Every structure is written in structure tokens, then in C-alpha cells.
Amino acid sequence: MKKVLLMILVTVMVMYLFTGCAAITNYSAKSNEKIKIGICIADFSDRFKFYMLKEMKDYSQSLNDVEIEYVDAKMDSNTQLAQVENFISEGVDVLVVNPVDRDSTNPISDKAKAAGIPIVSFNNNFQNQNDIVCSVDSDLKQSGILEIEYLAKKVNYKGNVAIIMGTMGEDGQRLRTQAFHEVIDKYPDMKIVAEQTAQWNRAKGKALMESWLESSKDINVVACENDEMAIGALTAIEEAGKLGKIAVGGIDATPDALDYLKRGKLAVTVFPNGSGQSQAVLDTAVKVAKGEKVEKTINFQNELVTPEDADTYIEKWKN
């Protein structure tokens, strides 16, 4: 009887040992898997988003055991939803989304929730902030305030202002337009005489400025909500022979804009630290994948960039 009990005890111990080894082996295999991140960008052709994409790709080289895939929604909400669904089917650990349209983000949230995949947003918010674990962006209203205050000072707080807005409804458009209005309302001798969207696009900014010039609108200042539209407006102004007579400002401090700034064509731009944002997006996504705590909002402060500062900020893009 004692021998039988001893054999049973030995058998149980051996089974326990092998079970324990299997559990350790499985855990090690899981911990050695690469973190998979799916990044959905609204539009690669947008210059600022293009530069953010480049910064992400460069920075990702320093991240170990991280696999990243980037997709371009080409400003189509349905395309973006399909891309999210593809990432979910691929089993990504984290979704990083730059929404095409905040009002179309609920279906994305629903799909991600059902799959148990967390979302990090950047450069535009979700309709419901509770649907995301973290939002990364610059202080959008502050960027508008910096630009328009500089332009107002440049024209001695007198003159007619035209506003070229981004895509309607996006956070950048909404908050920067609000900033422009609030600042201009402070100065009795300044007024808004034109206000229209050019959807963040250089060619559309040029076409809009051409139409205003052709209509003989009296414009002293053009406040643009990004650099691409500002460059478009400047092109139209230069072709009309009015360069230097209308002060034009932008936001993003892209390499193209800094060149215009250095040559004295663009009056001012604003640096939202696209490189810092890009790194924060990836660092946050990795932390989320590892189950670490992250801030609900990561908001970068902007820096005013005047012609005298152009070379300094050109170097920032080179480093």
C-alpha cells in the first residue's frame, strides 16, 4: 500500500513539474512576441502629417520588438474604418488613429471595443473622448492666438482680415478659428472681411485667394490655419503683384514654410513640435500595449516662429 501511495505521489509531482514548465514556456514565448501597432493617418498628402509620418518612421528604428504598419485613408472616413477593421483582423495590440472626421469616429470606437483593442488618437480628436486611452496633439487654440496676435501687431492693430480655414469640424479648424475671432474682436480697428475653408490644401488656398483678389476685396492680413494654405495664398498674392502688401501667416513651421519665412514672403508661422508629437504617439502606444499607465491627454505648447528664427527651426527638421 505504501509503495502504491509513493508511486501516486511521484506521478503527481512529475505532472505538476511539467505543467509548471509549460506555463513558464508559454509566458516566455508571449513576452518575446513583437508589439503590433496599426497607425491610421487621415491623409499622407497633407504636408504636416507627411512630416509626422516621416518622424514616426525614423523614431521607430530605436524601438525594440515593435512592429508598425501605416495606412493612408486619403481623407475618406469609410476607407479609414475599413483599415481599422483590417488591423483588428491582423491582431494589432494598439490602434493609433488620426481621424479623418471626428463625427465619424463612433464606428471605429465600436469595432475596437468589441475586439478589446485600445486606441491612441493624434492630431484630431474622437467624438467621444472616453473611447480612447490617450490623445496626443498640440494646443490648437494657442497656436491660433500666437499667429493672429503677431499679424495684428505687424499691421499696427488696424486692417481687414481674411481667414483661410482648415477642413470644417476638425479640432484644428474649430479652435484656431475661435482664437482668430477672439483676438480680432479685441481690436476695434480690425475686422474680418472674408472667411472660408481651403481644407488644409495648398492648391485650394491659392484658388481661394485668387477669387478674393479678383473680387477686389480690401485685405491687409490673411490668417491661415496651416502653412500649406498660407503658401497657396502667398503664391496667388505674388502672381497678382501684391507681395509685401498683404501680411500672411501660417501654422506648422514645415520646411517649405520656413523657406518662405526666411525669404521674407511669409510673415510668421507657429511650431507645434511635430517631432515631439510623433515620438509621444509611439511611446504612448508601446506603453499602452505593455499595460502601463498613460496620461489621458498629451498637449504640446507651440512656439512662435518669425523670420529671424527661420534658420533655427530649419535645423530642427535636419536633426
Explain how this protein is built.
The chain has helices at residues 2-31, 47-60, 77-90, 106-115, 140-154, 171-184, 202-214, 227-239, 255-262, 274-289, 310-318; strands spanning 35-41, 66-72, 94-97, 119-122, 134-138, 159-165, 190-197, 221-224, 247-249, 269-271, 297-300, 303-305. By secondary structure, the protein is α/β, with parallel strands linked by helices. It has a six-stranded parallel beta sheet, sandwiched between helices. The longest helix has 30 residues, at 2-31. The protein starts with a helix and ends with a helix.
Order of helices and strands: HEHEHEHEEHEHEHEHEHEHEEH
The value of Rg in angstroms is 26 Å
Let me know the largest β-sheet.
6 strands, parallel
| Uncertain segments | 1-31
Number of helices: 11
Percent strand equals: 15-25%
Average pLDDT, rounded to a whole number, is: 90
Structural class determined from secondary elements: alpha/beta
Strand order of the largest sheet: 2-1-3-4-5-11
CA-CA gap between termini:
78 Å
The best one-word shape is: elongated
- Oligomeric nature of the chains: single chain
Helix share, percent: 40-55%
Tell me the total number of β-strands.
12
